[in-house]
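worker-3 :: picked Disulfide bond formation protein DsbA
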Amino acid sequence: MSSVFAMTTADLWFDPKCPWAWITSRWLLEVERVRDVRVRFHVLSLSLLNEGRAVEPWYREWLDSGWGPARVAIAAERRCGNEVLRDLYTALGRRIHLDRAPLGRDLYRDALAECDLPADLADAAGATEHDDALRESTAAGLGPVGEDLGTPAIHVTGPDGQVNAFFGPVVTPVPRGDAAGRLWDGVVLVAGTDGFFELKRARTRRPVVS
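worker-3 :: tokens ->
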């Protein structure tokens, strides 16, 4: 199904540990089914983004544990190509957000095995060798959006090659079917309006990740 608002490519920057990015990613996969859209996935690290910043102790603990899955994802992309992130993010995210499995080597190895990716990529979780690439990917996602924001960050490339970049949407639960398509139409419409910057209200629900 096509729409006058349909775009060719939606590039999503995700942090594997962020529940809001997970929900947005599942929404975009629904959008693929009802609009002429193809989603590409990229890694964004909230741990890196908040490195050195003063944050609440609970959030610092959350960030400290977020390095591992982001590093594994960026290492897989660098070795095996961007296209592996689609399935790897799903494999990581299902374990992290749905199964509530503890972060660690077993989770990474299981996710990698599910995607037929090399098991030794799990070693990247505790290494810094790919942090420059992680920094570059994070900057690429947030550059057109604003570095004081985070994930989900989406860049939409239209048929004319113009890029429309924005943070969000932050939504729960995952919109499905026609509802996913209608949200896509609305988000692209308002985000593409010249001079439009913000539409927001207080959250009244915790993320529903299923």
